[in-house]
């Protein structure tokens, strides 16, 4: 790999942005593709699949054999709220391969005793997210029911293009949330991306069941991103 391509690839990886190195196995020529770059035809379809799945593979395009070396950031989960659902969701998400961070300024809830072995931030979300911004490979689940804590990270997640944005609450609660977010300057299209009520509709009742529904919705959203689907979780 040429030095300039390696340097550009490392820059994308540090910024948690996906990239693919396309190498012609015939002459060894390589180029770097960033997510969003315009690529047409059969190569464009193969590149889109590689970005979606994160799997590297060789493809035949116009008589040439190309190797697509995919570099896709590991998806992570940021949970707003050190609540009962979070206590069940955090270990489940880790088992599924999602690094987890929990943010909650309420020090009575955000304690190591309640969340052992979890990256826990007993600080306001705006302070934490200023240091570690959200990105397109982050899922955000807002679970506090408190607009003073939930609204700012929801705005940040939608602005950052997080692949999943979910918020706990009834339809009535969410309707008020929508009003606040629209008044804050978000577009109706952005607000429509919020999954609320959060989680797949499996008639979940207890915190662990709700956590299962939330994680399932996160995984489905990540694995089907870029694929048009008519199904939408309630």
UniProtKB/TrEMBL annotation:
Organism superkingdom: Bacteria
Gene3D superfamilies for the chain: NAD(P)-binding Rossmann-like Domain
Domain spans labelled XdhC Rossmann: 77-218
Name this polypeptide is given: Xanthine dehydrogenase accessory factor
Species for this entry: Aquamicrobium terrae
């Amino acid at each position: 790999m040429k030095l300039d391509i390696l340097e550009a690839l490392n820059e994308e990886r540090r910024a948690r942005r996906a990239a693919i190195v396309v190498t012609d196995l015939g002459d060894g020529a390589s180029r770097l593709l960033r997510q969003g770059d315009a690529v047409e035809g059969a190569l464009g379809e193969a590149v889109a699949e590689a970005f979606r799945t994160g799997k590297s593979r060789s493809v035949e395009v116009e008589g040439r054999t190309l190797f697509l070396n995919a570099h896709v950031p590991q998806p992570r989960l940021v949970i707003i709220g050190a609540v009962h659902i979070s206590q069940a969701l955090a270990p489940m998400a880790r088992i599924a391969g999602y690094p987890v961070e929990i943010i909650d300024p309420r020090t009575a809830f955000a304690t190591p005793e309640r969340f052992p072995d979890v990256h826990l931030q007993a600080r306001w979300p705006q302070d934490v997210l200023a240091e570690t911004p959200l990105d397109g490979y982050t899922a955000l689940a807002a679970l506090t029911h408190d607009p003073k804590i939930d609204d700012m990270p929801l705005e940040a997640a939608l602005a950052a293009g997080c692949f999943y944005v979910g918020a706990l609450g009834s339809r009535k609660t969410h309707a008020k949330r929508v009003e606040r977010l629209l008044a804050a300057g978000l577009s109706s299209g952005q607000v429509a991306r919020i999954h609320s009520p959060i989680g797949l509709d499996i008639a979940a009742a207890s915190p662990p069941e709700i956590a299962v529904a939330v994680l399932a919705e996160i995984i489905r959203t990540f694995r089907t991103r870029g694929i048009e689907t008519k199904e939408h979780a309630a």
